[in-house]
Write a structure and sequence with these properties.
It is a single chain. This protein is mostly helical. About 65% of the residues lie in helices and about 0% in strands. Helix 6 packs across helix 7. The N terminus is likely disordered.
């Protein structure tokens, strides 16, 4: 049974974003090298097949260990089993870098990251400003003081 049939998708449904893949291909080559569209499509198909192969073997490694979730260690073992052992060190380094960057992003807190750096008074002033904006929208757009006005009022 084809692994793609298990999840209810045909091979034609499994692909990678062409624009992203084209960008990756171009970044890996010298600037004076051009790649034909057919060659780009073939490279994308090869990448999809490689992902299917490694995913399938990772699943088998996972099953042999009687686990239900494929872990990074399973992927690394799959690479070794498939004969890609020479890439394990580089793949592991990329994984560690990704883990580090992901941790940094989560520590920043995304959209509300400045909240951790604000004092309680500043947070209260920001909350009051936001409430005033919401009231103004609800009441037909009355003027709302700017952040600096709210800060100077909070300090008074």
């Amino acid at each position: 049974m084809d692994p793609m049939d298990i999840v209810g998708k045909s091979k034609e449904d499994a692909s990678l974003p062409k624009a992203t893949m084209t960008k990756i291909i171009k970044e890996m080559l010298p600037p004076d090298v051009r790649v034909a569209r057919d060659a780009q499509d073939l490279l994308i198909e090869c990448c999809v097949e490689f992902i299917n192969l490694v995913s399938s073997e990772s699943n088998e490694v996972c099953n042999r260990e009687e686990k239900r979730t494929i872990a990074p260690e399973h992927v690394l073992k799959a690479l070794e089993v498939l004969g890609f052992g020479e890439y394990i060190e580089e793949v592991y380094a990329a994984y560690e870098q990704h883990k580090h960057e992901t941790m940094q992003d989560s520590l920043k807190g995304g959209k509300w990251s400045n909240g951790a750096e604000m004092t309680e008074e500043a947070l209260l002033a920001e909350q009051q400003r936001m409430f005033a904006e919401a009231r103004a929208r609800m009441n037909g757009g009355a003027a709302v003081p700017k952040q600096a006005d709210v800060d100077s009022n909070a300090e008074s």
